[in-house]
Each structure stands twice: as structure tokens, then as C-alpha cells.
């Protein structure tokens, strides 16, 4: 099967499925209602074994019910209307504040289309609750295990959907949102438990593994299909290759990255060989020196991708996301290499800049953080057709996941008891160059 044919013919004809077992194709939809940014303020966890979901006062039913959301599309929806991150996000208290929660005419359960299959949960947003109460016998079984990184928005959504938030040491939980897990932890899970990870997703989440899997596909299918990740060298193994490449271009910029850190930690832009840190392992990557600029500043896109199934591979792309700007005007001069506010777009770095401007309105393209939808509107205003950019981004997302699909499938089949027990939300960071070509920065 060709890698693009199952996605409305958007995938290149030469890229083929490397999965070791048959698939029913890949679904690519924009249905993940989510804003889970890298700078999310994680609330501390002080849950108890009691049901902390406060009952909602009766209200008139909403005449415009929202669409059902099956359990395998965990609703992580959080409003993008507040883009200012100068103050921390509020922590979720044991008794939720229901002042702004609205009751809607949306069933708590969604019936299956198939016989002898139980219904699934209709997940509510952070500011809504169903007017149809769950039966106490069902609600008693819905236990959500809190973790040290349970985001506030997830706690709101699952609590509004009928789950009871439980202590971390609870045993009979059915859902959780936690840190990455080792293979043994998947093996001891019950079949009815669901977690926010697949075994082996470090194959695309670690920068060194991402490059090695991408490189393998590049060598197999060529640059025509795989030309969206800058040339990367994994040290110490690629030290000789890097020295050869370094000598070909004088006075150029390179970017140095630790293989397994996030939020800009350990990342630096360099122009001299002696600036490469001695720490190993380490990645040295060609720097995209001519990015597309808005207001003379560099930016990247944070896009949210949900995988609900590895075999068959099922991918969902949320139709909005974040546009993160550097807080100083861009310059490709090697003299600016050390200025992180010029070259890096991570919010966790730029919020420290004296020139950082927050954005209070998701509909407006202003400040140093926009929504992706605001960017598309900006492009329309200046006469740039963003549809082609979006299709290239979809292609990039699919091929990136396919590059790590084979080892991920193998690890999933070895360690997971149930094909429905896992899902995972990824943040894809994409940079547009001066020709509006999307480049993958990291996953």
C-alpha cells in the first residue's frame, strides 16, 4: 500500500507502508480539541479516593448539543482565548469551581453501532457538563488516577465527564494521564485501563531516534519524499561526518541539541567548531538560516497530533495550534548566534525577554504568541494561500510517524494487552523557511 493513497491521495506514491502486519489504512482528521502547550502549568495533585466532582445546579438544556466524542479521542480541549502566559494557569481544586460550567443536552454515554459492544464516554469540555446523569453503578467504576503531571485541563474534562479523580495509589483505575512508561508498566495493565502513551514512541520523540528513523526512510525513498528534516549529526558516532560537512561551508550557523530534553533546555546556536559542547550524546544540526519572517522576527508552529491506534495507524490533526515568535528581530549574522531571543522560539525561553509581548485575544495576530488560525488569516490578508502549506504539513506529519511505525508497532504488540488501551498526543514543531516550505524541528 502506498503511503499517501489512504489520505485522500495526499501522500507521495513512492512511500510504502513498512508495517509488518496488514493495516486498514490511515485516517487523518482534524478532530482533536486540544491545546496542550509545552509551557502548561501543571497543577499539584492532592486528589482523594472520594468523588470530587461537584454536582451542577440544574439549568435549562442547551438546544445546540455538541458532537459526541468517543473514548479513544480523549478530549483535552482548552480555550486558546487566553494566550497570555505571564501568570500561571489556575490549579484545579478538589471541589471544582462550577460558576462558569454550563449544562448541555449531550448524552453522557455514546451507544455503539455494533451489538454486544458497551457504550463509550462522551467527554465534556472544561466548561460543560451533560444534563444526563450517569447511573451510580456506572459512575462508581469511572476512576481516573491522578499523576504528578496531570494537567489542570485534563482534570476538568474528565471530572465533568463523570470520572472520579483518585489518588495516585488507587489500583482499580480506568484512565490516567501521566509520564512516559517503561514496557513492563504496559504489561501489568488491565485490558480495561487506558493511558496517554504507546510503548516505543521515543522512536519519534527523541531527537536522535527521530533522525535515525528519518534517515533510514531517506536512504530508501530519496530526498524527493523525505526532505523536511535538516541534516543532523549524532555525536559521538557522526563526529567524522560532521567534520567533513563543517569544512564545506564557511561562516555558517549550526544548532546544538541534547537528544532528550524539551522547552529549549540545552539548545544553542553556534558558528565555530570549538563551541560544540563536550557533553555526549549530542546532536548538531544544520541551522535554517533563512526562515520566513513576520514583523522581522522568526517563528514556528506548534501543531497537535493525536494517535489513537498504531495498527491500523490512525492519526488526527487538530485544526488549530500555536504560533510562537522569537522576541527579538532576526539576524543571520554569526555575531548573533549566542542571542537565544533572536534564534529560539520556545515560549519557556522568550517569556524571560524584556521585549516579550503577550497576546490576550486568540482572534488577533499580535504579540509573540498567536493561534495557527490567526496565522492563516494573516496569510489571507497579505495574499498568501496557506492551503498548500497545510497539505505539506500533513504530509510531513504522516511520514514522520511512518518512519517510527515499525519499531513502535513491534513494541506495542509485545507489551500492550489491548489495542484500545493507548493513545498519545504529540506536539509537532514546524518552521517555515523563506519559501514557505515546512521543516520539522522536533516532536
Plain-language structure description:
The structure is a single chain. With 443 residues, this protein is of the alpha/beta class. Helix content is 21%, strand content 17%. The protein contains 11 helices and 17 strands. The strands form 5 sheets. Strands 1, 13, 14, 15, 16 and 17 form a 6-stranded mixed beta sheet that branches.
Number of helices: 11
Number of β-strand runs: 17
CA-based gyration radius: 23 Å
Structural class call reads alpha/beta
The fraction of residues assigned to DSSP E strands is 15-25%
Helix and strand succession? EEEEEHEHEEHHHEHEEEEEHHEHHHEE
Largest sheet: 6 strands, mixed
Task: List the topology elements.
Layout: E1 27-29, E2 102-104, E3 109-110, E4 120-121, E5 128-130, H1 136-139, E6 143-145, H2 152-160, E7 164-166, E8 175-176, H3 183-187, H4 202-205, H5 207-221, E9 232-235, H6 239-246, E10 254-257, E11 268-270, E12 282-286, E13 299-309, E14 314-325, H7 340-343, H8 347-350, E15 369-371, H9 372-381, H10 387-403, H11 405-415, E16 424-432, E17 438-442
Keywords, separated by commas or semicolons:
443 residues; alpha/beta; six-stranded mixed beta sheet; single chain; four-stranded antiparallel beta sheet; disordered N terminus; 17 strands
Amino acid at each position: 500500500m502506498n503511503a499517501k493513497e489512504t489520505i485522500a491521495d495526499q501522500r507521495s506514491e513512492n512511500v510504502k507502508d513498512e508495517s509488518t502486519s496488514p493495516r486498514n489504512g490511515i485516517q487523518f482528521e482534524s478532530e482533536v480539541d486540544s491545546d496542550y502547550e509545552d509551557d502548561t502549568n501543571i497543577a499539584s495533585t492532592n486528589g482523594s479516593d472520594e468523588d470530587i466532582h461537584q454536582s451542577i445546579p440544574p439549568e435549562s438544556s442547551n438546544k445546540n448539543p455538541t458532537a459526541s466524542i468517543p473514548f479513544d479521542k480523549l478530549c483535552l480541549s482548552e480555550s486558546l482565548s487566553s494566550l497570555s502566559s505571564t501568570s500561571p494557569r489556575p490549579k484545579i481544586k478538589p471541589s471544582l469551581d462550577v460558576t462558569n460550567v454550563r449544562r448541555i443536552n449531550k448524552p453522557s454515554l455514546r451507544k455503539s453501532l455494533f451489538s454486544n459492544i458497551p457504550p463509550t464516554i462522551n467527554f465534556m469540555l472544561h466548561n460543560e457538563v451533560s444534563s444526563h446523569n450517569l447511573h451510580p453503578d456506572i459512575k462508581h467504576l469511572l476512576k481516573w488516577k491522578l499523576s504528578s503531571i496531570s494537567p489542570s485541563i485534563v482534570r476538568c474534562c474528565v471530572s465533568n465527564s463523570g470520572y472520579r479523580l483518585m489518588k495516585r495509589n488507587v489500583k482499580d483505575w480506568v484512565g490516567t494521564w501521566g509520564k512516559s512508561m517503561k514496557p513492563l508498566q504496559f504489561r501489568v495493565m488491565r485490558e480495561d485501563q487506558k493511558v496517554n502513551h504507546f510503548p516505543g514512541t521515543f522512536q519519534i520523540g527523541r531527537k536522535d531516534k527521530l533522525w535515525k528513523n528519518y534517515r533510514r526512510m531517506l536512504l530508501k525513498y530519496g530526498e524527493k519524499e523525505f526532505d523536511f528534516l535538516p541534516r543532523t549529526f549524532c555525536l559521538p558516532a557522526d563526529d567524522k561526518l560532521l567534520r567533513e560537512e563543517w569544512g564545506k561551508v564557511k561562516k555558517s550557523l549550526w544548532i546544538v541539541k541534547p537528544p532528550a530534553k524539551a522547552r529549549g533546555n540545552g539548545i544553542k546556536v553556534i558558528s565555530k567548531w570549538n563551541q560544540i559542547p563536550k557533553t555526549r550524546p549530542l546532536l548538531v544540526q544544520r541551522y535554517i538560516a533563512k526562515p520566513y519572517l513576520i514583523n522581522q522576527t522568526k517563528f514556528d508552529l506548534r501543531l497537535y497530533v493525536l494517535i489513537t491506534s498504531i495498527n491500523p495507524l490512525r492519526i488526527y490533526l487538530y485544526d488549530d495550534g500555536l504560533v510562537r515568535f522569537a522576541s527579538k528581530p532576526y539576524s543571520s549574522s554569526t555575531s548573533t548566534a549566542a542571542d537565544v531571543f533572536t534564534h529560539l522560539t520556545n515560549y519557556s525561553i522568550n517569556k524571560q525577554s524584556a521585549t516579550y509581548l503577550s497576546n490576550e485575544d486568540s482572534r488577533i495576530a499580535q504579540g509573540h504568541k498567536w493561534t495557527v488560525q490567526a496565522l492563516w488569516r494573516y496569510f489571507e490578508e497579505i495574499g498568501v494561500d496557506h492551503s498548500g502549506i497545510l497539505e505539506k504539513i500533513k504530509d510531513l506529519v504522516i511520514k514522520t510517524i511512518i518512519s517510527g511505525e515499525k519499531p513502535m508497532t513491534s513494541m506495542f504488540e509485545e507489551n500492550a494487552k489491548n489495542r484500545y488501551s493507548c493513545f498519545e498526543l504529540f506536539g509537532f514543531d514546524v518552521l517555515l523557511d523563506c519559501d514557505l516550505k515546512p521543516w520539522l524541528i522536533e516532536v
